[in-house]
Write a structure and sequence with these properties.
Pfam families: Asparaginase_II. The protein is α+β, with helices and mostly antiparallel strands. 37% of the residues lie in helices and 21% in strands.
């Protein structure tokens, strides 16, 4: 069973609770902390994007820096994100018409309101996955692979993505589904996800893994966006590689190869960073720079009246 991992306090009243699973691994990929069901299969959702990005780099994608970070992003749809996705497409001789991700409004509230105020509407380029899809298409063009079916599970690109995830997690994919953007989704255990993030963050210089890790850690605003917790987390922990995912998934790898992965059972996003920061603290990490993420505010009439707080009992594995 998933276990209690966070509580929602409104004043002195316990209003709600969140259950889930938490795991931490050391530099060798061994569990050092386990809560709930970390060895059950789960879909990483967008926490899989760094490994999709790795597959693209392994397949010859020439991106680096902020554009490679964008290829691994669930971006907020700010103007620089959208312009970056268009740059990736243009570099491959494509336009945004080639994108097959779901039409959407920007994920970031300010970007969304600005688009709507200007008369804009949902489009694939504004979806949080457009950087990844643009890079997928660029990878296909580089290799001479077909672009009309790049989201099919049997496409060479998606087979490479599956292999990259299996390589770094040390596990075989246990189930295949379809993510919100239309790309194939591969299930592994939460422990495998943590192991993969640790190996990515500690990858040696000169490897495709190092290119992905450096792009994400050096350009965290391209992975998330203004005010996003995943951006703040990486900015506060130099050399770390973090990625949030839908349905309550979150993972972070540290430069020494240790890592944490979290799954909130009810799919809520509000408890994710709170639980991640608590798990990092349990590992003995200095998280003083993450005080803004250590407790999510509960509001009453626009002011803080309580908080979402960690509540799990760390058990050494």
């Amino acid at each position: 069973m998933h276990e209690l991992v966070a509580e929602v306090w409104r004043g002195e009243f316990l209003e709600s609770v969140h259950h889930g699973s938490v795991v931490a691994v050391d530099a060798q990929g061994r569990q050092v902390l386990a809560v709930g069901q970390p060895d059950e299969l789960t879909y990483p959702r967008s926490s899989n994007k760094p490994f999709q990005g790795l597959a693209m780099v392994r397949s010859g994608l020439a991106l680096d820096g902020e554009l490679l970070a964008l290829a691994c992003a669930s971006h907020s749809g700010e103007p620089f994100h959208v312009e970056g996705a268009r740059r990736i497409l243009a570099g491959a001789g494509l336009t945004e018409d080639a994108l097959q991700c779901t039409p959407d409004l920007p994920l970031g509230e300010q970007a969304k309101q600005a688009l709507l105020a200007g008369g804009g509407q949902s489009a694939p380029i504004y979806m949080n996955c457009s950087g990844k899809h643009a890079a997928m298409l660029a990878t296909c063009v580089h290799n001479g692979w077909s672009t009309h079916d790049y989201l099919e599970p049997g496409h060479p690109l998606q087979l490479a993505a599956r292999t990259a995830l299996e390589d770094l997690s040390g596990e075989s994919v246990g189930a295949v589904g379809v993510d919100g953007c239309g790309a194939p989704l591969f299930a592994i255990t939460l422990t495998g996800l943590a192991r993969a993030f640790g190996r990515l963050a500690a990858a040696p210089a000169g490897t495709p893994e190092r290119r992905v890790a450096e792009a994400m850690s050096r350009y965290p605003e391209w992975v998330g966006g203004t005010g996003r917790d995943v951006t703040e987390l990486m900015a506060a922990l130099p050399g770390s590689v973090a990625k949030d995912g839908a349905e309550g998934v979150y993972a972070i790898g540290l430069p020494d190869g240790s890592a944490v992965a979290v799954k909130i059972a009810d799919g809520s996003t509000r408890a994710r960073p709170v639980v991640v920061v608590a798990a990092l603290r349990e590992l003995g990490l200095d998280v003083s720079g993450l005080s803004a993420l250590a407790e999510a505010p509960v509001l009453g009439h626009g002011r803080k009246v309580g908080g979402v707080r960690p509540a799990f009992a760390a058990v050494a594995a």
